[in-house]
Request: fold
Amino acid sequence: MGEPLVVVSNRGPVGFRRAEDGTLSSVRGAGGLVTALRPLVDRGDVTWVASAMGDVEQELAGEGPREEISAAGTPFRLRLVSHDPETYRLFYGVVANPALWFVQHGLWELKRDPAADLTVPWRDGYAAANRALADAAIAELDLRPGAALYVHDYHLYLVPSHVRSARPEARIAFFVHIPWVGPDDWAVLPSAIGRAVHEGLLACDSVGFHTERWRSAFVAACDALLGRGEDAERVSHANPIAVDTNEFDELAASEAVRARRQELASERPEILVLRVDRTDPSKNAVRGFEAFGRLLERHPELQGRVVLLALLDPSRQEIPEYVDYRTATVAAAASVNRTFGRPGWEPVRLELRDDFPASIAAYTEYDVLLINPVMDGLNLVAKEAPLVNERDGVLVLSRRAGAFAELGEWALGVDPLDVDEQADALARAIALPAEERRVRLAAIQARVRAHDLAAWADRELAELDARTR
Ligand code: F6P
Reply:
């Protein structure tokens, strides 16, 4: 049994549904953070504090902490925190996404943003929700003397400072799953917000980032905004999150994935280009479709032989910017199909749904994987998909995804804003000699297996230990 750990993230490891007959069932929590962190509970003695999302979870939150069982059979405690709907809207729908997310992914539009004053949403939404989650975390820490607190991501930058002032001796670690940006980028927000964000992280004993690039931006921003670059240097480290390789091997061999693979195999084109993302503006699907169109225009010999399969999980649809981007994504795919499609061949196949087995089936089958985010903390698909791919698939990867620092050597790097370069990279990937494809994929797989999720978690806990013993 590992040391007691209290994990806090906005989205919990499981979601809940109630059937018409009233039966309650739990479903795997969606998204990269949860996929990556779920195995933490198998280390034993874990309490997870998360926001209650939706009516069923609100109702369950009122019943107090729950005993849950992980997929591997380990019990863990789940404490759901209920927020007033307006507080949650301001917290999630106005401040965390899009303001913080957009600033930290280079998506802020200076000529238009901030579209509204953020002071009230910050105080009544973000700070209030952070306080509620921090209070729940403090209550759980009090039940487990000596437990470490492990807080995750951009929703919760204020949790560490609340916990630190209430329990000065607490051992607090934080992991930032998204990019960090420099002081000029933070300057687009009211300065009190920028300072509170950085002070929040400096209340931790240990702060992890996916890459050295994001870590040094954090140090520079702490220096410029607070004059505390040295403190930031002392608490921070880079440790890219990883894949639970055993879980992925098992999933790839599962019945659900096998069934999806059969469906896919029966209709697969000669060359399959794949993208798997959330419909998030940072993922850059629109430019990806434009690049694919340009590829077909420049290489007519590929017409009829290649298909871009885009499996996109609709995301954050309560936020207008996300609805607009999803509409633009559908339009961009339709435009390629209108221009190039013909009876019997639809160049872009766009599927808008959350279907994890279908994604893994497609991972095994792609020839080229296109990952072109404008900016991305890491991008777990860049690790998961090559790990189980069986066709010596080539990775075309944005140089502004955190994963590029680890995998760039074996990928074809692209500038996410340069559509021409992406079209050229797709052509090059398709034409790459078989042996080179094999060597590149094998190198990525070896890297992903060598630094797997267990190694990532060991390092995280060791960083906290080293700074608090
Ligand atoms: O790190 C960003 C992140 O938390 C991912 O881990 C995850 O895929 C996504 O955002 C989930 O976002 P949301 O909880 O808004 O659906």
